[in-house]
Each structure stands twice: as C-alpha cells, then as structure tokens.
Here is the input.
Amino acid sequence: MSELEAGGENRRGFLKCMTWAGTGLVWTLAGGVPAAIGLEAAAATRRATPFSFVQVSDSHIGFSKPFNPDARVTFREAIAKIAAMPAKPDFIIHTGDVSQLSKDDQFDDADQIIKTAGVPVFHVPGEHDVLDEGQGKAFLDRYGKGTKGAGWYSFNHAGVHFVALVNVINLKAGGMGSLGPEQLAWLKDDLAAHGPSTPIVVFAHIPLWALYPDWGWGTDESAQALALLARFGSVTVLNGHIHQVQQKVEGHVSFYTARSTAFPQPAPGAPGAQPGPMAVPADKLRSVLGVREVSFVARGQTLPIVDQTLA
Amino acid sequence: MPSLRLTLRAAAAAAMFGIGALGVGALGVALAQGPAATGVNIDNFSFSPPTITVAAGTTVKWTNNDDIPHTVRAVDGSFHSKAMDSDDSYSFTFAKPGVYSYFCSIHPKMVGKVVVK
Here is the structure.
C-alpha cells in the first residue's frame, strides 16, 4: 500500500455539504448538491468531514484461466476489502469490463457480488461489456438508466463534479478508445455549468491519455476532452483497461489507471509482450490485483489516492 | 522479367503434372491445401496472415488462438463476428470481388484485409 500525491496547495477546499442521498437510488443524487459555488464561499465552507469513494475495475466476470480459474472469487475478495474499510466509502465507481463477454449471467454475478459492499455503484462500460449483438444494449439496459448516448452521464457529490465517459463504442480500425463528437459536445455543455474551482473527477474505461498508443492504450480525442477540462483547477482522471497502476500529472490534471480484480497485464511496451492477460504464479496473483480508495480532504488540489492489492 | 516467365513455366508444368497425376492422389493433396489457404489465425493480437487473397465464393475462417476474446468486423460493416473466445472461430463467405478491410472491434489496433479476386 502506498499513498500517492497527498500534497498540493489548497486554495479552494471542499464543500461542507452533506446532502448526498446515497441509499441505493444512485440516480437521484444529481439534484441534491449545488453544482457550483464561488471561490470565497467554497473556502469558507471547507468540509468538516472528508469523504471517500472506491474505484474497482476490470472484474472480467467469466474470465477463467489456470492462474485465475474463477474471476468471481477475486472480485468477491476485492469487494470484501471495501466492505472492511475503516471509513465506509460513499460509493463505488466501476471503470468497466465488468464482464468478460457481456453475458447476462456474468453481469448478474458481478451485481450480486458488488452489492455486498452496501454502497451505491456507478458504472461505465469497457469494451468487454459491449460485445452483445446490440453493442452495449445489454449493459445500458442494466446500468444506463438516466444516461445519455452510449451511457455517459455526470453527477455532483459534496461539491465535486463527477463525469462518466464512454470510450469503447464505435471504435475505428487502427484507432484507440473513442469518445465521438456527440459525447464531446455533451461534455462541453456539461462542464459549462461549473466554475473553475469545482473539483472534477472524470472516469472512463480506456485511458484518457496516450499511455501506449501502439497497444491502443489511449483515446483518440483525448486532447479535445482535456482542452475542455483545462480551465479547472483540480481534475482527477480515473481509468481502467490496462490492469495496472500508472499515473501521470499534466498541469492541474492527474491521471491514474487502476488494477484489475481478475488478472494483470504487462507493463506498457514490455519486450515481446501483448496487451492481454499475463499469467502469474498462483501465490503472486493477489499482489497484482486490487482496488483503489480516493479521498477528498480539505488540503489539496491533488487527491490522496491509495491503491491496495488483494494480497 | 525472367522470374515471372520462370514462374509461369513452372505453373504450367505443375498443371500438366497435376492433370497427369489425377489417378495417383495428387488431386487429394491439392484439395487438402485449399482450406488451409483460407484460414486466418489470431495469435498474439495479430491477424495472420494480415492480408489474404482468395477467389470469389471462398469461405474464410478466422480462429482465435489467444487467451482473450477478439472479433472480426468489416470496416464497411458488411460482415462481423460475435466475440470469439479462446479457440472459437468465425467463417464468412466472400461472394463478390473486392478488398475487404477488417479489424477487431475490441482491439482496433488489430487490422487485416481480405482481397477477393
């Protein structure tokens, strides 16, 4: 376990706003929190009680290889770890690849497991979640209530604006992740309602920066999305897809990818490697799987992020 | 272009030999080689061979040898597989001549081409 990026000069603080109504009705929270607040007001109402949320990713329910014959087992361990956290997170964000093959029973199993954490869950699809004939219809029917387009949405929580993006639909031959013009237009409108002092958390499955384009580890229009985010003082980008922790800071934007709960993948560009499952000895598996806790405290523009393995 | 002439002569000779050898099983060998030429393997996140040339009416079969799912999807949308898990395969018959570019919709860096003559 290591705590990353806990520093940073605070000019804004966070809102002392506890109007979160998260009792399982995850779609009811958007109206509950003031979307934006002036700089002075924000500083004056610095949060007394910090909150946290958890990111899980790439559960790949249905994955079955000798080194991890049942991805449900490791997903259960991950969720048990969350349930046992000393400070209960306000919610879980699942950054995609819930399933291995978009099958109903795989989604069902994932849902049964994740609900044992007892907190609301927010989803974005991974490319493995849109393999049904409807190219994502099964995922949207299950998780997409109240979302736009291919499943993108935003919500506010305790003064923080969360944006869920979908970059696994309509991928182009030879390309990487894709947001598409419709989603970019929506993002522009969505962000317009918020002042530059609003902390922003963006989450999507495929990395939103060019992490390793040769393996498709990036998003074609990420520069356009980041241009829309440039005026904000604190932007945290959370992604999955690559099954390992990578991070990068660019101006006020901090990028993080998360571990999988099912299997690891090689380091970007590792010689002779491909961006697929990396077999590991059974006694090492849990040291390369994990979950991430993200905390909001009143002391920095960069959020304290703790990655925990399942070991 | 001596090499081309040589190739043509060799082909002609092979054709004559083939006709002459019908009765001794050479045709069987030729047929056995046919299906092998219309298969595309998916190994290590690549289509192999990346470009395959076939006659109109040929059925091309893709087989996923990777331990992660892949798909085959035409750039022009004219054909697409379901997700192929490990060892799954997908076949498509190309009726009309043309150049068909395709990719894996899960890993779009994986691209290939079918040339139908």
In short: The radius of gyration of chain B is 17 Å. The first helix of chain B runs from residue 2 to 20. Residues 1-36 of chain B have pLDDT under 50 and may be disordered.
